[in-house]
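Pilot study result, target chain (459 residues):
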Amino acid sequence: MRLMLKILIIAGLSLAILIPLVLIRVVIQDREQHRAAAVARIASSEAGAQTLSAPVLVVPYTERVEVEQTDDQGRSTGRVWRDRSGAWTFFPKTMEMTGTMSPYLRQLGLHDVRMYALGGQLSADFDVRIPEDAEGVPPRKIGTPWIGYTVADVRGLRGTPQLRVDGAGIALHQGAGGDGGTGVHGLLTRPALAGAPLRLRTVLDFELTGAETLAVVPLADENRVTLDSAWPHPQFNGRFLPRAREVGNNGFHAEWAVSSLASDAQLQYRNGTRADADTASLLRGHGDAGVDVLGISLVDPVDAYTRADRASKYGIVFVLLTFTAFFMFEMLRGLRIHPIQYGLVGLALAIFFLLLLGLSEHIAFDWAYLAASGACIGLIGVYLSAVLRSRVRGLGFAAGLGLLYAALYGLLVSEDNALVLGAGLLFAILAAIMLVTRRVDWYQVAATPTATPPPLPPR
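Predicted structure:
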């Protein structure tokens, strides 16, 4: 009966410790939102996550159409000829983009925001034919065509991009033209003729800054994108992964090749779906951007909030293992440990995660982890030396906690192998407990009264 009561008390304390652990996770999420707000503030003053699309060729026209004319009562009064405006949209046969993403940091308060300056060249080839006039109708009047480029946040353009069409420089204007969204466009110097072929070679030289993420919309029939950067931790996202990539300590090199047969980007564009400022931001969180894009993000592999959140998920495991060790020591050694002492040690274990979060905002995560774990291990070691009436026992428990914190650090730095390492660790601990207690007669332990500990020596 006494044994079951003790087990119920420990189980209740374990559930109670979940409350501060959950609150600490709420704090972590709140700090993540603070960082997201810092990114948004920098984006509002410099440039946000960028989306860049292959160019489109738009040819406007005006045609005469015969329509039915009605009076105020809806009765037909005859047919009349009226002008109607429209435009043809053509996509390039091939698009090739090359560029170098030069990373730099912007700081707001405690938060560093990763930015990049993309210096690149985007070339595209058009080979289209203007539709011929239908027989028996007045000829269309074809206006001046334009080349439009979609850029999510035009504030990121450094200087004036240079557009060349068939080797001749073309002046750029604001907007992608028509309903193409934000960006730039250039008017062609020659009008198109009905039924005539239109072959163009366009080259855009540009420098574009952005925050963390870049997305490219592959609107051409054949799209090739090549990017280089000195940032050693890229995250490839979007709906198309690179066909070739090299990632090392000195940076990365990535190449994409996307065919229109594998992408709905052209159909999405014709249906009015445009890439905007939210497209690239959604990629960073692995969300659905709503548009077929290829993307890359400059991520921080030691993001303090991500690691602190992952570490807090193991908080209840820390508490359960520590309480289990207390319980076994209490039952096997006949030394009573008060539930309040259980609770204080559990709170010290929970405070570790809050301390880790606070320190990691000011110093490197590794040093923050070392300082937070060292402080908690030292505190619990000193406290247990008095609770267990032995400095050796207190230091022994502190050493065990040190091994546990070291194992947790190994799980945090081994993201890809965290599950198998965590499962192996729990299995090893359970096996050790079972082997140590395999000869214990728990009925006898439950029936044996616990010895009263000697009083603490006077100070």
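One observation from the pilot: The chain has ten helices and 18 strands. A full batch analysis is planned for the follow-on phase.
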